[in-house]
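Incident review: delayed structure delivery

Summary: a single-chain prediction request sat in the queue longer than the usual turnaround. Root cause was a stuck worker, restarted by the on-call engineer. No data loss occurred. The affected request and its eventual output are reproduced below so the record is complete for anyone auditing the incident later.

Affected input:
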Amino acid sequence: MNYTFLLYSDPTKFADMTAEDWAREKEVYGAYIGALQAAGVFVGTDWLQPTSTATTVSMENGTARIQGGPFAETVETLGGYFIIDVPDLDAAIAWAEKCPAAQYGKVEIRASAMGGA
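Output delivered after worker restart:
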């Protein structure tokens, strides 16, 4: 079964990060990706650009409404995701607990409506 981890965090906590801080952050996530790959559960991941680059599209009475920015203005924003293939929710929770984003934000787990890989 595929599960997607939606990674939410407060982007203001990263505003003062140096190039060295970002390099360390990439190393931490690289190790997590390596662990997922070694376990044979890794499907995919992406780190998203800031919400300032977002565009939201909705249809109102048959007319497209295009809005700059994310759908909801919140402190915590969606910053990326992982897709893993594990047997059940308990296994997904175990991997989410190890996700670096869980240390400073939230990891929302969603089961795929389309099944597994």
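Verification: The CA atoms of residues 17 and 25 lie 10 Å apart.
Action items: add queue-age alerting; document worker restart procedure.
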